[in-house]
UniProtKB/TrEMBL annotation:
PANTHER family: BIFUNCTIONAL UDP-N-ACETYLGLUCOSAMINE 2-EPIMERASE_N-ACETYLMANNOSAMINE KINASE, ROK (REPRESSOR, ORF, KINASE) FAMILY. Signal peptide: none annotated. InterPro entries: ATPase_NBD (IPR043129), ROK (IPR000600). It comes from the Bacteria. It comes from Nocardioides aquiterrae. This is ROK family protein. Belongs to the ROK (NagC/XylR) family.
């Protein structure tokens, strides 16, 4: 086996691990349920790496990259505000604790930033914006080949751009944020779905079936995502915009809905139309572990 890297995507329900080669090609993959809390997160991550060592028959002594939700200080390898993982206290020294346990160097990155690096590997484009539509709405930026984290780590936090002064109160304390219109939790509130079908899938299926209320909600959601894409494109003008996150499990139908909303928004503006935002859109294939691959490439 040539030079390889290990990446982990630690999420609230599952932890994905991959081994990739220098080009980001996936050589092995493992998935485990995430145990919550600081001990649980470290234990799960260590178990996933051990499983990757077993799967490849290699000691995997290189750097392990980790993508995790919450506020991450990349330099120190620490995380906080990862509330869904039960890490809601002070800075948690994930990098040091996991590194000691595994006997390797561990680097830690915010999961959206990690996924953005994965989107670069996936698309072959090194000037792109990754829009993560999960529980919330956030973006990652790789501009001219460099990840832009921001001076306060807040680059790409487009979900908290207020667009409606009379809108819903957002958990960030502002009113009418884009996230309250265009996110997995906004969809779940607007279209509660019984059983195992995720709300996004249920809503898009109902709209496809001709339900007028579903069509209106789908189009409103797509317009919210399109607004985020427009803000990002007008701010940094990336070559490519990649849609990802849990809601991107919708695949091509998500890209089509957002592209259609972008075309609507550009219909009265030759300026906006000339930027061809709809033509720059791509969506992460539902089976591609974009954040784990990006996390692996952190250690390159
Ligand atoms: Zn907000």
């Amino acid at each position: 086996m040539g030079p390889v890297n290990v990446g982990l995507d630690i999420g609230a329900t599952k932890t994905l691990g991959v081994v990739v080669d220098a080009e980001g090609e996936i050589l092995a993959g493992v998935r485990e349920a995430t145990e919550p809390g600081s001990d649980g997160v470290v234990r799960t991550a260590a178990r996933v790496v051990e499983a990757l060592r077993a799967a490849t028959g290699e000691p995997l002594p290189g750097t392990v990259g980790v993508g995790i939700p919450g506020l991450v200080d990349h330099e120190r390898g620490v995380v906080k505000h990862a509330v869904n993982l039960g890490l809601d206290g002070d800075w948690f020294e994930l990098g040091d604790l996991l590194g000691d346990r595994l006997g390797v160097r561990v680097v830690v990155e915010n999961d959206v930033n990690a996924a953005t690096l994965g989107a670069v590997a996936m698309s072959g484009e090194d000037d792109l914006v990754y829009v993560s539509i999960g529980t919330g709405l956030a973006a990652g930026l790789v501009l001219e080949g460099r990840l832009r984290r921001g001076d306060h780590g807040a680059a790409g936090e487009v979900g908290h751009i207020p667009v409606d002064p009379n809108g819903v109160l957002c958990e960030c304390g502002q009113r009418g944020c884009l996230e309250t219109l265009a996110s997995g939790s906004a969809l779940a509130a607007a279209w509660p779905s019984p059983g195992q079908v995720p709300p996004a899938q249920a809503l898009f299926a109902a709209a496809q079936g001709g339900d007028p209320k579903a069509i209106a909600l789908r189009d409103e959601f797509a317009a919210g995502v399109a607004s985020a894409v427009r803000v990002l494109a007008l701010a940094v003008d990336p070559r490519t915009v990649v849609l990802g996150g849990g809601v991107a499990q919708l695949g091509e139908q998500l890209r089509v809905a957002v592209a259609s909303a972008l075309l609507d928004q550009a219909a009265s503006s030759p300026f906006l139309a000339s930027l061809d935002l709809a033509g720059r859109l791509r969506v992460v294939p539902s089976s591609y572990p974009v954040a784990a691959v990006g996390a692996a490439l952190l250690g390159r």
